[in-house]
Amino acid sequence: QVQLVESGGGLVQPGGSLTLSCAASGFTLDYDAIGWFRQAPGKEREGVSCISSSDSSTYYADSVNRFTISRDNAKNTVYLQMNSLKPEDTAVYYCAAGYFKLEPGSWSDAYEYDYWGQGTQVTVSS
Question: Which residues lie below 8 Å from residue 38, measured CB to CB, with a gap of 6+?
Answer without folding.
Answer: 45, 46, 48, 89, 91, 92, 93, 94, 122
